[in-house]
Design goal:
Order of helices and strands: HHHHEEHH
CATH architecture of one domain: 3 Solenoid
Largest sheet: 2 strands, parallel
Distance between the termini: 108 Å
Number of helices: 6
CATH class of one domain: Mainly Beta
Strand content: under 5%
Shape: elongated
Helix content: 25-40%
Length: 263
Amino acid sequence: MTTPQKTLLLFLGCAALLAGSYLTLQNLKETMEAQVTDRLTQAVGHISNESLDVRLGGIYALERIAAGSERDYEPILHILITYVRERAPWKEDGSARQGQLAKPAPDVQAALTVIGRRKHAYKQGETQRLDLRKTDLRGANLSGAHLEGAILSGVHLEGAILHGTNLKEAILREAHLENASLVGARLEKAYLGGARLDGAILRDAHLEDAYASEARLDGADLLGADLTGAFGLTWEQIKTARKDNRTRLPNDLKAQRPSPGSP
């Protein structure tokens, strides 16, 4: 056999090997995708189960799938948001859970925790805002959660724990945050028009350039809070709020500061 013939045979052998490897990888990819689809279908089935333990297992299974599958990330996020909205709607007819110590059901809290610690965020891998408007999340623990840009209009978060929660550019129109703890929370450019923050703890919180027109801050703790550039804020809104020399106020509000002894 001549050298050219040997070279041709070697080339054909390599080509066949590469083709076989490609087909094997394609088959493996299809098998893995089918397995992920099966896991997703099973997890979705679990979150509608009557058993709390099964529902919790389904929620955490969805989190694991989303962490490893970009294809399924957004659909799973949508599933979890829908789950919270359906399981914890705010009921205007007065039939919502009563009491100052009200807390979300364990499965709702689990879904919120998973949403809050997901690997992407709004404008950082996500183009859509989370939509949790008019939900009953009183007493929820959302510490450190990623809720940038979230739509939280009319949400009830009374007594909620939001330490270090990222709420940049979130829409909190007429949201209820009475007595909520927002220590170190990030609320830059958040829309707080008409929000109720009576008694809220906003110590060391960041509210730079937030829209605060008609927001209620009666008795709120603003020690160390940064409200630089906050729009629509008046002395009337914060006259009963706790403030100290670290509380940073908008320049136009500083100019309106009442003189000592004035009513």
